[in-house]
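Exercise 3.2. Students should predict the tertiary structure of the chain below and write it as structure tokens, then compare their answer with the key that follows.

Predict this chain's 3D structure.
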Amino acid sequence: MSPTSSQSKPSRPSKRAAFDAETADGPERKLYGRRRSHKLRSGRAELMRERLRGLAVLPEGGGSPDLAALFGDRTEYWLEIGFGGGEHLARQAGNNPDVGVIGCEHYIDGVAKLLSAIDSEALENVRVHPHDARDVMDALPDGCLSRVFLLYPDPWPKTRHHKRRFMCADNLNALARLMRPGAELRVASDIPDYIRHSLQYALSHPAFYWTAARSADWLEPWADWPGTRYEAKALSEGRRPAYLTFQRRA
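Answer key:
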């Protein structure tokens, strides 16, 4: 069983992808495209100035974040890598107030939309990193995450850009360090090649296994799935998304 046209079991990748060196604000380890699309409206620009610093994940002086200080008595933490417009993250945070939710997104317009949702929905359990998720992944302590979301990531369709795809051995190694035994990695995409790519890397990694037992397990979204604008666009254009769940082995 496989969510690919051939229905054959994905094979182990022939070689691992490598990334260019980068920093959060300078030349970047490119996993994404543009940083912004237009000037923010005054209200959202003010939110960015007034609220973003108080919702920061990483300490200003560097080092590992103090999750207890960030989230109080919450002991379960989730990470969303590239939250887009933030609608999924905001819904999950609102439905799970006892969970600390960390969101990472390089696209400033999306960050501003999430800040608006945090204010309008009075979400107290969200922290935001407006840059590359790997900045946070590098700093978080071992075994701290019980769920990770990678939803409709940029597929980088050109072969020469495949090294920019998030699903790769290096990033899975980092997630394996961060995720506690039994933690879930949820991946959604409507691009068949990216689905195959994700399966190849995850299935070849010793720390993860794919939980699907039947086709409905990857053709139907998760029970708590609120949907996203990217999913709606894919469905309207005739593409059927796949919903992959990988679990961290004990």
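Discussion points: The chain has a mean pLDDT of 86. The chain has one domain: 42-248.
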